[in-house]
Write a structure and sequence with these properties.
Largest sheet of chain A: 8 strands, mixed
Radius of gyration of chain A: 23 Å
Number of strands of chain A: 18
Shape of chain A: globular
Strand content of chain A: 5-15%
Oligomer: homodimer
């Protein structure tokens, strides 16, 4: 009740146009600004130790400006593909724990896992896992299997008086299940929420896919106003998001906006506002299209911030900007050189190498997050659940699921203050020092050496991608172990010294390999994670520790 | 400001679970429960002088129960087709005044008016009018022509703190215009709002039309949760409407729900909950399908009322039940005998005879509307605009358009009280007396002899329908004049004595004909209404008064 009353007391004092700042400070507005398939190197903001050449490809001035007012999260990790990250955010559970480790199909009970070409399948020794292909569900439904029953955090926000809004991509579960409908996930308002992992078209000239010649499931709904105009989907979603905010803002009701852009996912459709500029820079067609989509979502961020400032609520609105997985390095229409598009990070989307799971993340929260700071403590997708609820001032809540994530509120507040102090005292004088600066757990509440698990026991495409399919990895401090299920091989990297993951230390440092293999094994066993099985025996592939011991003999 | 504060003061006191009854009484919740194509005779509630046989076709127990708690509006009139009624409700303007007199197409700038077969067109002396085929728009858009700029009343409710929700059919304007999006019409929440005049399918087994083989514009959006189940669209919309009400009710925020069912419009798709029952009564397939759809929307009303009672807000929620035009008497798949399906009323949808424009209407408003009463004063679609705003306690508001409707709040309150008194004093002892009882204007504020205009200068189908196309009519007290544009003929009926409109008195009572022709002419001229023109000369057809004078010579 306590929190509910607190939220509603904001309503109580909202009538005067002056608003009620004191109350509002207790219940900040919160925006999760989630981009699809945007890589660690796809923005102007340097999340790494230095400004890499790829940071200069796309102009994202609004994100850069936001980073100056907030904190850069340099070690933010999510899952290799969309759905696992989104269901981890909604559930607070690790993907290995939900057993939702690949993207969900539009069709219920359908496993989208790819298998090799018939020829290759002869050699294919691996069986697909029995993962939860029906995603998450907010309510138990008779006959609905292979899904996880969870209490989505927006429901808790709503129950505490928050005005909860979903805009854009959902992708939490297939059609024909409760999670296909944002109104079942704790949202008061839904605009264009759908199960599809991508839009059929970003072009209003094509009615965002609402035509009779192709499959509708990927057509974007609730956008009829723009049909036949030249409004790119990114801009249309932004305009719609702002419309839904008028009511809570005008009435002093604290809101949570789950703003999920379809961009910069395929199809790579040019944003007409920025395309020509990148062509003029000499980019090939595909690169220019992709670049224009990246600047398009940055423009969306800028337009939303301008709206919040005009409404006078920017000072009481927290913004979390992030991507749902790493940049896609396998898509031809994106242009450039495949498998190098996230350089210096290795590979990309669907891989457990850094480029697949490390994402751009910036957090703005005026008066709470020290401006212009960089926080290097690892953050994972499931942390958002307890974090957002704590930001909202909600201390007690019940959930049907066990939460794996940790609130990073202390990291954001006390942690950023510590970094600011180090900067003021001259202990941080340049980007490299900022990148290396670690915040003690006694300050942030989070172990800077916490273990970060990535688990993708799947084949992504209908052809083998050596550095992408069937992998697990664990990062702990400077070290990272990578397990390839298909080959049953282990690799060991020192991320601090070798962010490219090219220098495999598994043979030269067997002790560390064994230590990391044991840690990865413990993590997988702790979550009761699924691993693929051998076609021949039906037995699951060995745990990393078994292999490490072997390798060590 | 005054009204805004009043609405918000309801929020202010809402925090305690006890709510704030005193405040709530100032800001009642309001539900407009709008059915599509439901005829005057399609319910168990007798809106006429007696219980006609067709009142016994369909079981609508929930509407009957609501009528016992509220008032039956026996003389409620709307437009012959969907869009004009819906745009009159949203604008407060008469259809002849908005010049939106036919239904709008899904395509912008497209005129859906039918023309005759090529052969018949040789004889076709009439040209289509330049009516506003792009419907209404809440904002002026450069290049958007043939539309009317209006301030929709939901915007005024929202600006005054009301939580405004749209569910179901919109049909205010085509795709590619602002009114295609309920978020532009003053709604905080939209579920499945679209421009199409009908759904492609009512069946979840067909994903409500979201398949790849046919045109998407008629597919119902935001319903993915139910795909592949057996949930009829009527039930799905009801479940979604209730979900959207949790937030305002739980937080003591007054709401307006614009609940627009697609049923009972074509396609005539059986509601599995009631179909067999009507087959067992001996109805043919089409009649049973239609009957099951009618009982389906009644069930929706009952489910919604049960929800409101469970939530404890039924006593503070006003419900207006009505249809958007008369029953369709031209549809084969509906079964029965065409052109007699609204008997004893003449014809049906798209006609200016009673069956096309006279609709079932019941108003429930506890403590305001005397229970179990019948109000015979004519009510028209454009009355809803000022009525709903007055019910909400909003006294001052600006609109860009001129409002033609009158608030019927006094009729509903003082008028129903007068009827109740007459019943208690034994001046009304049976249905016939109740039907004849007139409420003095000094009590209700509305002239019981007010003029009711219907204007349909269009051809509805690609073949001529003698009693349907190209008509205007005016009712004044017991009298009604009908003008057929194509033939340039006038008919005169005494509705009180001849509700079937079969006994034309134009020749036997030329004085009344001339009087009514003058009144109809004045009304059309007053609204600057469009009339068709002759192909030969391009001149508009004569005004009724000119014809009456001729007839009279």
């Amino acid at each position: 009740m306590k929190n509910r009353l607190k939220a509603l007391s904001a309503l109580a004092l909202a009538a005067p146009l002056t608003g009620c700042v004191a109350e509002k400070e207790q219940n900040p507005n919160i925006i999760l600004f989630l981009i699809d398939d945007m890589g660690w190197l796809d923005t102007s903001v340097p999340f790494g130790e230095e400004v890499y050449p790829f940071n200069m490809r796309h102009d994202t001035p609004n994100l850069s400006a936001l980073a100056e007012k907030g904190a850069i999260m340099s070690s933010a990790y999510v899952c290799p593909v969309s759905t696992p990250t989104r269901t981890s955010i909604m559930s607070g559970m690790n993907a290995a724990h939900t057993r939702i480790t690949n993207y969900t199909s539009v069709d219920r009970d359908w496993n989208p896992d790819a298998t090799d070409t018939p020829e290759a399948q002869e050699k294919d020794v691996i069986n697909r896992t029995e993962w939860n292909i029906n995603g998450i569900t907010p309510t138990k439904v008779e006959g609905l299997e292979r899904c996880v029953h969870v209490t989505p955090f927006p429901q808790i926000l709503k129950d505490n008086g928050y005005y909860t809004i979903h805009v854009g991509k959902g992708h939490w579960a297939p059609n024909g299940t409760p999670a296909a409908n944002p109104y079942n996930m704790g949202f008061c308002v839904n605009v264009a929420g759908q199960v599809a992992g991508k839009p059929r078209s970003y072009y209003a000239e094509e009615n965002y896919g609402n035509t009779q010649d192709k499959w509708n499931y990927f057509s974007v709904q609730n956008m009829a106003e723009y049909y036949g105009t030249s409004t790119h989907l990114t801009e249309a979603l932004t305009l719609e998001a702002m419309k839904t905010l008028d009511y809570p803002i005008d009435n002093g009701i604290p809101f949570f906006l789950n703003f999920c852009h379809h961009a910069v996912h395929t199809p790579i459709h040019r944003d007409p506002r920025f395309f020509q500029k990148y062509v003029d820079r000499g980019m090939d067609e595909g690169q220019a299209r992709f670049a224009s989509m990246c600047e398009g979502v940055d423009k969306s961020l800028g337009d939303l911030i301008a709206y919040l400032e005009k409404k006078g609520v920017m000072d009481n609105t927290a913004i979390i900007f992030m991507s749902d997985n790493g940049g896609n390095s396998e898509n031809l229409s994106k242009g450039g050189v495949r498998h190098t598009q996230n350089s210096p990070l290795r590979e990309g989307k669907a891989s457990c190498y850094e480029a697949g799971i490390r994402i751009p993340m910036v957090v703005y929260w005026k008066g709470k997050v020290a401006a212009g700071t960089r926080l290097n403590t690892p953050v994972v997708a499931e942390d958002l659940y307890p974090t957002i609820l704590e930001m909202a001032g909600i201390e007690e809540y019940q959930t049907v699921q066990e939460i794996d994530g940790q609130s990073i509120v202390r990291l954001l507040t006390k942690g950023s203050a510590a970094v600011r102090e180090a900067m003021d005292k001259g202990r941080i004088t340049n980007q490299e020092e900022a990148y290396d600066f670690q915040i003690d757990q006694s300050i942030s509440g989070i172990d800077p050496e916490r273990e970060v698990l990535a688990h993708f026991p799947h084949q992504w495409k209908p052809y083998q991608l050596h550095d992408i399919d069937y992998m697990s990895s664990l990062r702990k401090g400077d070290w990272k172990i990578v397990y390839r299920h298909r080959e049953q091989t282990l690799e060991l990297y020192n991320i601090a010294e070798d962010i490219t993951e090219r220098n495999d230390l598994s043979l030269s440092n067997p002790e560390k390999l064994q230590e990391m293999a044991a840690a990865l094994t413990a993590k997988l066993e702790g979550y009761d994670a699924l691993l693929p099985t051998f076609r021949s025996t039906g037995e699951r592939v060995p745990m990393p520790v078994e292999l490490a011991t072997k390798t060590n003999k």
